[in-house]
Amino acid sequence: MKPLDIIHDSWLPVIEKEVHQEPLLSLSEKVLPNISFQPDAENIFKVFRMPLKDIKVVLIGQDPYSTPKDAIGLSFVNGTNKVPPSLRNIYKEILDSTGQEGNINGWEQQGIFLLNSALTVETGKPGSHLSYWKNFTENIIRFISYNNPCIWFLWGKMSQKFKSNITNPLLMKDYDEKLIKDLPINNKFNYILEAPHPAAEVYSGGTSGFFGCKHFTYTNLILDKLKKDKISW
User: Fold this and answer.
1) Most buried by CB count within 10 Å: which residue of 2, 85, 90, 171?
2) 147-190 residue pLDDT tens
3) Who's near 124: CB < 8 A, 6+ residues apart?
4) pTM for the full model?
């Protein structure tokens, strides 16, 4: 299977154009053939197997896990039985805010688009391919926000840099559990939920601000108002 064979047809207008331009052309023809990289080639575009119209929430991660077998083409999802610190903190916030036991392995099937800002990484070198994928990711974000407005999880400064690429945004920073009941509802809005990265809780002793963000609760409230199925986190 070629890497692009996995993508749904709804992505062709944007992806076919992007992958044949620099710097992705150099990445695919000059860099990747000469290094060990993650994930496996057939999983690079795995997130794009989801039809555009099915997206309810976009969660932007940084780049794939740089250790073999861990990266599978979906942000925060580990290909082994490991539960990395960030995911552990995600599960803690889910439990504390919703009372549910979280399981990220079921999110994609419910319309959570698990996009990394870089789709490849050199083995053992986190962040090594971010510059190659920057333009691609910006255009993907514009494409989604314009053609299928949805909810966005921007956790950490890296993902928040892409906020300017989201069209017709509604920033949720001033909403709490009371105010969200009066949230304006419009299928053309992109609802943006921002918080520190879940990994920051590891270094801050649990005080960085991801804990208590209630993004999982707010998301289901928004989806309910939009008359869409809620997420079973």
Assistant:
1) 90
2) 999 999 999 999 999 999 999 999 998 888 888 888 999 999 99
3) 36, 66, 67
4) 0.96
Cβ atoms of residues 194 and 151 within 8 Å: no
Active site residues: 63
Q: What type of residue is 116? A: N
Each residue's pLDDT tens digit, 66-95: 999 999 999 999 999 889 999 999 999 999
Q: Residue type at 194? A: E
Query: How far apart are the two ends of the chain, measured CA to CA in Å?
Result: 32
Angstrom CA distances, 86 to 51, 76, 120, 164, 169, stand at: 27, 8, 19, 25, 26
- Taking the C-alpha atoms of residue 156 and residue 98, their distance in angstroms, rounded to an integer, is 22
CA dihedral 12, 14, 20, 21 (to 10 degrees): 180
- 36/178 Cα distance (integer angstroms): 50
Other residues' Cβ atoms within 10 Å of the Cβ of residue 141:
23
How far is C-alpha 20 from the geometric centre of its chain's CA atoms? 23
Domains of the chain: 3-225 (3.40.470.10)
* Cβ atoms 63, 171 nearer than 8 A: no
Tokens, residue 28: 């695919």
